[in-house]
TrEMBL record, chain A:
Keywords: ATP-binding, Cell membrane, Membrane, Nucleotide-binding, Translocase, Transport. It comes from freshwater metagenome. This is Unannotated protein. The keyword Zinc does not apply. GO terms for molecular function: ATP binding; ATP hydrolysis activity. PROSITE patterns: ABC_TRANSPORTER_1 (PS00211), ABC_TRANSPORTER_2 (PS50893). Coiled coil: none annotated. It is found in: Cell membrane.
TrEMBL record, chain B:
Keywords: Membrane, Transmembrane, Transmembrane helix. It is a multi-pass membrane protein. This is Unannotated protein. It comes from freshwater metagenome. One of its GO terms (cellular component) is ATP-binding cassette (ABC) transporter complex. One of its GO terms (molecular function) is ABC-type transporter activity. Pfam families: ABC2_membrane. It is found in: Membrane. Its main location: membrane. PANTHER family: NODULATION PROTEIN J. The chain crosses the membrane at residues 47-71, 83-104, 141-159, 165-188, 200-218, 253-271. PROSITE patterns: ABC_TM2 (PS51012). The keyword Signal does not apply.
Amino acid sequence: MIIARGLTKKYDDFVAVDGIDFEVKKGESFGLLGPNGAGKSTTMRMIASTSRRTGGELTILGKDPNKHGPEIRAHLGVVHQQDNHDGELKTWENLYIYGRYFGLSRAFLKKKVEELLEFAQLTEKRDVKVDQLSGGMKRRLTIARGLVNEPEILMLDEPTTGLDPQARHILWDRLFRLKEEGVTLVITTHYMDEAEQLCDRLIVMDKGKIMAEGSPAALIKKYSSKEVLEVRFGSKNNADAAKKIAHLGDRIEPLPDRILVYSEDGEKVLKQIHKLGLEPQTSLVRRSSLEDVFLRLTGRTLVD
Amino acid sequence: MSMIHASVDSAIAIAEKRSGKIGAEFYAGRTRSMIERAFMAFKTSSWIIVLSGFVEPVFYLAAFGFGLGQFIDGVTDTAGNPISYAAFIAPALLATSAMNGAIYDSTWNVFFKMHFGKLYQTILQTSLGTLDVALGEISWALLRGLAYAIGFMAVMAPLGLIPSWWGILAIPGAVLIAFAFASIGMGVTSYLKSFQQMNWVNFFLLPMFLFSGTFYPLDIYPEWLQRVIEALPLWHAIQLERALTLGNISPDLLWHVLYFMVMIVGGLYFTTRRLNALFLR
């Protein structure tokens, strides 16, 4: 559905996306993972045909977005990071007029709008001006709006940023349903749990380049261990303690506030640390995540 | 065209119809959806602002035409027939209000939507193109301009300020003028970054209003200044409207029409390019 070859975006001297290659297949849920400024949103905008590439090739549904922008956009649902609703209009009017921009008929939209209000759990708020909706409601409305034209590809840029945990789960649930219906999802996120939950396959981006590609499980397997032990000795003692336990586990990663020890068995490592006579202030054994993959690949954490 | 589209319920099929046509990358041929949006928003907008666009030229007409006009004799139309001072300035006020309405819509309203409402970013996510957006916003400005022109004419006619039946054409004339100013205005607005800069627009418009032959003929100026003013759009607007309401018809009027046609085509090209540069970069 989407093929990128050497895709590049330059703004004057700054290279936002630096020659990346990827493919997205039909019905797949594809993720772009990386910290802020990695080039994810720029890549999304190029796919959404609202930003012109400056180099490389990009084909969406067999078409070049530089030449066929409006036609490609007819296939897409776009959910931006910011909820850019039409503040002069009511909730239902926002959905309706968005469908009209696509040229859809009034009769079709009359049904579709109610269906989407239902989907977004906003039926009760249909006659309210959008400014009066809560953050979670606005987000759901943005997603519902992205579905008005029954898109084949739904693009979600940081879909749950700024939402409380409950609202996030409602949203994930909605996205799962769409995936089951065969909609291709393209998602950017800097939340690891989100990428693990939603994406079949993802690319990890940093500084405009692709660092790794694969399914969440495969990436974790390749770049991390099964478990991670997090220990804190207090910020003064961490560096010292890191030297003493460097030989434990598969690999250790000393961070300013804590030390991560990668291992197949976190509890076992913790016991070994105690045997060395070290007493961590706190300790936590957890499953390895994409966060660890990112740290391994870039030497930096995702959310700073 | 619209009838066929209305029966299709797939955004893709609708968009494909323009595939391969000239300008398909920036025009989807659905300006009317933008106008529909403007109507929806208009329903809830402030009526005082809407009304002020109508009242302003009427106030000018009352103060200058009927107030000041009492002390002014010897006004003639281009054919030399004596006319009242009110009949002399009324078409100029009509032209000016067409200009002001178009500028207001294409600067303040557009500025807000560009920078705060983010409306155009949202719209350009859909299968609409930049020319659809530009034409939609401008068409809305024209509809308002048309309503104001009809309103002002309805005041002028019973007061005997439109001696000629040609005067009817002053209404489409006002729309043409509004179209020209709105086309340019939207492109200019795209360069403006702050409300302070927006005031520069007024800084340019006010002297143009006062000195473009609005209140007296140009021949009191030195030759060179006359030439400068004759290059300005409001002078053409006033000449056109005055000739129509007074019935001084000649083929020369077509030059004014041509002037505005050029402004429209140039303005649309300029505005569409600017929207592309701003929102599809």
